[in-house]
Design goal:
This protein has about 425 residues and is mainly beta. It is about 5% helix and about 35% strand. It has helices spanning about 20-35, 240-245; strands spanning about 50, 70-75, 85-95, 100-105, 110-115, 125-135, 145-150, 155-160, 170, 190-195, 205-210, 215-220, 230, 250-255, 265, 270-275, 280-285, 290, 305, 315-320, 325-330, 345-350, 355-360, 370-375, 380-385, 390, 400-405, 410-420. Strands 2, 3, 4, 5, 6, 7, 8 and 9 form an eight-stranded antiparallel beta sheet that branches. Strands 18-1-21-20-19 form a five-stranded mixed beta sheet, with no helix packed on it. Strands 10-11-12-13 form a four-stranded antiparallel beta sheet, with no helix packed on it. Bound molecules: calcium ion (4 copies). One calcium ion binds near residues 137, 139 and 141.
């Protein structure tokens, strides 16, 4: 009765630099950036329309010091149940820093505060011209580690979290201890990564796009604790077919249709995963696709950042901009992301809890599957349940999780879980 496997996904980051052409493009994109916040008259009450909501933008008062590209990433870095935010910058010729906006609010009402100096766990970062942070627990020890995309070299710098889930402490690793030290795009100088478990073997694999629109797939042939990335191509690369006809940039993963398979976004375009857990396949899809009022310019290295800042199980979307500010888009009022699915017959309690969760399930002849993911969308467990009540999570570390209850291949219930 119990199937168990692992999987995941989530967003991306990127890198950058500057030839003459690049500078021209950048100036053009700055001009465009002012006009990308157009209002779509068609953004009416459909389920999938993300509209710009400046008033409720939790980062509306922030901008990076360089006033060049901002590269936000949301992660609960102190395991207090709310998302904090780090943002890298593009500086052109100076060392690039990472800024820390700590969430001093709650998981329902974020309130970010910029904290500097040693209170910023990544205060020590000074990468070449560009810093694009991407957080992921790459060594499976329960705390988020950080890769930082660097400019000019097109390298991924690795900061291992030698602290813990509540008290992060990052230490830059040498090439020998950096699982992505092989990533160097010396000709283009930019690498934009996105991580997901694309072959269902329980470890994060990595998709990288460069500033020429190419993709490189790094399959993790190691484990969740000991990554071992290998650059694979041809039939081993699930993006190989798509790459023959598609330009890759601003890549991110998000399971938009909640079928347990990470979907691909190239900038704001939805590529549905129509493959299997072990073998993904991505096609451009108009099927229930999300629409975005604000679309990033191509190659601005501002992939979509999906994050549930209101704690309702429904994700909002943030992006950096070429001016160093942040754009916030949410489903317009009364809309419901398919992420939020309710069923009066399903009940999870206690929530939050310091012990186990219990889920009560509707009486049904249909097989029920329970999926638990972390906030990055990584599937932690999948279980087929025959009973009307199921207890789980006693061994979970403190943090935020999601439960999905599935019947007939459809999610009938989604709920955010807080383990205290
Ligand atoms: Ca937090
Ligand atoms: Ca870790
Ligand atoms: Ca994998
Ligand atoms: Ca999917």
């Amino acid at each position: 009765m119990i199937a168990l496997f692992l999987q995941n996904y989530e967003n991306a980051s990127c890198m950058k630099w500057f030839t003459k052409q690049e500078m021209i493009r950048r100036i053009a994109s700055k001009i465009c950036a002012a006009s990308i916040l157009f209002f779509s008259m068609n953004a009416s009450a459909q389920k999938n329309n993300f509209v710009v909501d400046h008033n409720n933008n939790p980062l509306k008062n922030f901008a990076i010091a360089s006033n060049k590209e901002s590269h936000p990433f949301f992660v609960d870095i102190d395991a207090d149940g709310d998302y904090d935010c780090f943002s890298g910058e593009y500086t052109n010729s100076h060392p690039a820093k990472i800024y820390f906006y700590r969430n001093d609010g709650t998981n329902k009402k974020p309130q970010f505060k910029q904290v500097n100096g040693s209170t910023n766990p990544l205060n020590g970062v000074a990468t070449n011209a560009l810093a694009i942070p991407y957080f992921i627990d790459i060594d499976g020890d329960g705390d988020y580690d950080c890769f930082v995309g660097e400019g000019a070299t097109g390298a991924m710098v690795y900061y291992k979290n030698i602290g813990n889930a509540n008290n992060p402490s990052f230490e830059k690793q040498s090439a020998a201890n950096n699982p992505l030290s092989m990533v160097k795009f010396l000709t283009s100088g930019i690498a934009s990564p996105a991580f997901a478990d694309l072959d269902d073997d329980g470890d994060y694999d990595c998709l990288i796009s460069d500033d020429q629109g190419n993709e490189i797939y790094l399959k993790n042939k190691g484990t969740a604790q000991q990554p071992d990335f290998a650059n694979v191509s041809g039939s081993e690369d699930p993006f190989n077919d798509l790459a023959s006809s598609t330009t890759f940039y601003n890549v991110s993963f998000h399971d938009w249709n909640h079928d347990g398979l990470p979907d691909l976004f190239i900038n704001t375009t939805y590529y549905k995963n129509v493959g299997t857990a072990a073998r993904p396949a991505f096609i451009i899809s108009g099927d229930n696709k999300p629409n975005f009022q604000s679309k990033a310019e191509a190659f601005t290295f501002t992939p979509l950042r999906w994050v549930d800042l209101k704690g309702d199980g429904s994700s909002e979307v943030l992006m950096g901009t070429a001016k160093g500010t942040y754009v916030y888009q949410a489903l317009s009022s009364d809309e419901d992301d398919n992420a939020v699915t309710t069923s009066a017959a399903v009940h999870v309690f206690p929530n939050p809890t310091k012990e186990a969760f219990i889920v009560n399930l509707p009486a049904s002849n249909v097989e029920t599957t329970i999926r638990i993911t972390n906030v990055q969308g990584k599937l932690l467990t999948t279980q087929v349940v025959n009973e009307s009540s199921y207890k789980f999570g006693k061994d979970f570390k403190p943090g935020t999780y999601f439960i999905q209850v599935m019947q007939n291949g459809k999610v009938i219930y989604t709920q955010k879980l807080i383990k205290g």
